[in-house]
Amino acid sequence: MTTPGERPVGRGELTARELLRWTWRQVTSMRTALVLLLLIALAAIPGSVVPQTGVDALAVTRWKDEHPKLTPIYEKLDLFSVYDSIWFSAIYLLLVLSLVGCIVPRLFVYARASRAQPPPAPRNLSRLPDHTSYETTLTPDEVLARAREVLGKRYRLRPLVVEEAEQQPSRDPGDAVSAERGYLREAGNLLFHLSVLVVLAGFGIGGLYGYQGGVILVQGSTFGNNLTQYDDFDPGGLFTPQQLDEFDFTVEDFDVEWLTSGAGAGTARGFEAALSYQQGDGPRDEYDLRVNHPLSIGDTDVFLIGHGYAPIITIRDGEGEVAWTGPTVFLPQDQSFVSFGVVKAPTAKPEQIGLEGLFYPTFELYDGDPVSVFPDALKPLVSMLVYTGDLGLDSGESQSVYVLDKSKATQLTDDDGKPVRLDLSVGETIDLPDGLGSVTLERVDPWIRVQISQTPGKEVALLGVILALIGLCASLFIRPRRVWVRARTVAADDGGDTMATTVVEVAGLDRSGNGDLAEVLTDLVAVLKNEKESHP
Amino acid sequence: MTDAAWETLSNQAVAVAGLVYFGALLVHLVEWASLRQPAKQEAGLVTVAAQPPRPADEAGGGAAKVSERRTPAERIAFLARLGFLLTCIAAAAHLVGLVGRGMAAEPNRVPWGNMYEFTISGTFVVTVMYLGLYRRLKLGWMAPLVVAFVLTTLMVAVIWLHEPVQPLREALNSYWLVIHVISAVIATGAFTLGGIASIMYLVKMRAGDEATGWLGRVPGLDALDKLAYRVHAFAFPVWTFAVLITGPIWAHEAWSRYWNWDPKEVWAFITWVVYAGYLHARATAGWKGRNAAILALVGLATLWFNFIGVNYFSSTSQHAYASMEAPTRLVSTGADSASYDCTDAPTRRC
Ligand code: HEM
């Protein structure tokens, strides 16, 4: 630590400190704030053009496949996760720094200023851009008393005592009223900027401690809230598994209300999943999970975000044993809900059996091609190709349940060498050739996809924006201004009679620079004069 | 009335509104055109009338001259009033069009299920705000600009964006959405008005403050700046409410994430930040006036780009109400699971 006098302060040190101070002043200047704001707007743009991992991972993969040359460059620039990137964070951290540096000193200034009295009237009121004056027969004291009364309702007044104590010989004693209003504007502005920090804090908490998980559940199945049950799980950096609320729920029933006529025919209007759930050891409750109506259990929210069909297919092998049975989740390919799925029976004897194909909710042959004419499961049909041999499941490598590894498998063909295709309606069984077994479509159940998430800090963020909005309105709509009224006796020397009249000067300053001060002054004068008329 | 009848009524009402707006525009253009003549005539008259000191006070020949001189001014005032009245009538038809749209849906709903409806709602707000503030902010000079804007946008909506009435998708069926869209539409209308004032600020700045003709009727630079500021100062908190409060609340209920950096959200944020910049600029030395006006227009551009551009150029927006056809995206997640969304929103993962 160097204190002046301990040793001579070097030149370099001085300039270093000055440089520091200069830098700080630059960082916290209004102009820097403005430039940083524009910069962050600009920096946000790439994230809306390039697909973002956090928004749509599939789109990112697709984009990367299409642009193999650009991909490495984009990856270096973090263009697939702009809002977590170093450069984006840098800008907003600078902005936060600038904000803190700007707000903290202003808080102190405001704390002092908010208790301050309106400054005394300038000597020459007519020098102010907005001023007016008139003459009256009332005495200055009467005029000033009236002005105090009128202005006192909505303005803070400079107390009389102080005004007299400060009087200077050159000035008439207590000849003016000084008034000021709109102190809350600055308070609102400070509140707004502070609330921006609160919002960022709330946002940050959510990102660090929250998580998002997704799972597909076939009607009738139960979800217990622990990590192994999620299909995908995306925790924040500081998430711990102990945060998971203890609950389970069962999808008792799922209903879609399809529009069958009109312009929207074939689109769904309502989705409703009847859940029964239990929190900890609590009682079992019911909830109708719908879009826009998430289920909240403890700190966790459960959202209904998708649905589809899960045909229940049974495969019997060549020895007549059930090699596989159960609902298989088929993934919708498009709005028609034609869905793709894979069934694997690795234990089938003599050979493993794999099925791959499409599910048609309302099957129809159109020019010989299978199509689905309606997304509801009115006339369901699965149409599968059959593979046998090594399905690649024995290697121990993990495999997606939605993909059939056909690299070592052989496709079943009929006597003409055409692929065997199984077209199964509900309840139908088809025997496989060569005594391999048979395949049955038992029924079709719906599945739903739910998103399960914790977003701690969302209340903080919400409170922050609401406070920010209040502060913003105060800051934008409160018009701070100062008004002075001065009354002085002048000797009217015309005519020889020394008649004394009073000249009243009214002037104001609008500190927001956008008020209609002239009107305010005119009104004030009218009120002041009015009194004269009512007291003849 | 049947739904089909309501839909027809709505289409006809919008067509009538368009026609009457067109009439209003013509009237205002005639008004503008005649503004040029009196300026010339007056200039001529001043030289002629230079000898008699106060022609207005004189009788006889002087009076004839006076009446000749006052007619154009009266005519202009009449045209202005007529244009205003026509705009009011058009706005009434416009409102019928909106109500009809909502009544035509089964069940009845707010009229912003798609871009056509959003556009006719947005233009309606522009008109209503203009009419409402006409007197208070003396917006007479703005008339042809506002009417031309509304008419053009309405035509674009009818020709390119029109879609038959459809029920609201379930994700859009939320009262948060109603509040969200109402405030977004109001803010959009107000920003547009403010933007017109800012454009005129820049135009007038180039032409010089003492320009004649119709530019002479446009308020001075100071007044324009103040007007633009007042309108923006109104719009900004409304926009804040729309995109930073109700939007996230709705998104949280529908998609489980209150803010997800979806392109629509990104652009709403960009717009917000640019307008925050505008408000800063007005308080920053060297950025006042011209630069602030330019920033306001940049803000307006981002606003309209978000509304129109993002829907066409971005394939990743979840804001399905804006898409022209129902999205047909298959969604995959980390576990290779995928789903067709109830919310028309892709499932998200990081
Ligand atoms: C996150 C960044 C920021 C945002 C979003 C933001 C936003 C705003 C907004 C919307 C206003 C207009 C409302 C009003 O007039 O009170 C405003 C005003 C203001 N801001 Fe900021 N601001 C930010 C950062 C800063 C910083 C870093 C500074 C200091 C250098 C600053 C200083 C001011 C001042 C002094 C005003 C009042 C301007 C006036 O008197 O009209 N702001 N800000």
Q: What structural class do you assign from the helix and strand content of chain B?
A: mainly alpha
Radius of gyration of chain A: 39 Å
Strand content of chain A: 25-35%
Fraction of residues in β-strands of chain B: under 5%
* Mean pLDDT over the residues of chain A: 84
Strand order of the largest sheet of chain B: 1-2
Order of helices and strands of chain B: HHHHHHHHHEE
Distance between the termini of chain B: 50 Å
Number of structural domains of chain A: 4
The portion of residues assigned to helices of chain A is 25-40%
Query: What's the number of helices of chain B?
Result: 9
Radius of gyration of chain B: 24 Å
Q: Kindly state the percentage of residues in helix of chain B.
A: 55-70%
Largest two-chain interface: A-B, 83 and 81 residues
Q: Roughly how many Å apart are the termini of chain A? A: 74 Å
The small-molecule ligands in this entry are:
protoporphyrin IX containing FE
Low-confidence stretches of chain B: 38-67, 315-350
Number of helix segments of chain A? 11
Largest sheet data of chain B: 2 strands, antiparallel
- Give the overall form of chain A: elongated
Strand and helix map with partners:
The complex is a heterodimer of chains A (536) and B (350).
Chain A: H1 11-27, H2 30-44, H3 46-49, H4 57-66, H5 70-76, H6 86-113, E1 130-136, H7 140-152, E2 156-157, H8 160-165, E3 176-181, H9 183-209, E4 211-218, E5 222-224, E6 232-235, E7 247-258, E8 268-279, E9 284-289, E10 295-297, E11 300-317, E12 322-327, E13 331-332, E14 339-345, E15 353-360, E16 363-366, E17 369-372, E18 381-389, E19 409-411, E20 421-425, E21 429-432, E22 437-454, H10 458-477, E23 481-492, E24 499-510, H11 517-534
Antiparallel strand pairs in A: 1-24, 2-3, 3-23, 4-6, 4-22, 5-7, 7-8, 8-9, 10-11, 11-12, 11-22, 13-14, 14-15, 15-18, 16-17, 18-19, 18-20, 21-22, 23-24
Chain B: H1 3-48, H2 61-104, H3 115-133, H4 143-161, H5 175-207, H6 214-217, H7 221-255, H8 263-282, H9 290-313, E1 331-332, E2 338-341
Antiparallel strand pairs in B: 1-2
Helix pairs in contact in B: 1-2, 1-4, 2-3, 3-4, 3-5, 5-7, 5-9, 7-8, 8-9
The complex binds protoporphyrin IX containing FE.
